[in-house]
Amino acid sequence: MYVCSCFGITEQQVREHADTGACTPRxxxxxxxxxxxxxxxxxxxxxxxxxGACPRRxxxxxxAPEPLGVEADAVGPAALSEAA
Length: 84
Known about the structure:
Layout: E1 2-4, E2 9-10, H1 11-19, H2 25-32, H3 42-49, H4 55-61, H5 68-73, H6 77-83
Antiparallel strand pairs: 1-2
């Protein structure tokens, strides 16, 4: 069944991109353009991704360390002013 009729992207294609690491609608859009034209399919893409659709999300939920980029984002303005 088609998820994105603008670009002809199917549910199976979204699942395949999720299996290779695309865990968010934005990452799916980067992989195949789904959701970048009219936006009508974004909610369907979100529901297809759901919980458990992303191996990295399962690792994080099980207590595995956050990816490197996430830790850097945790530093807030207060921590930066203390360092100065």
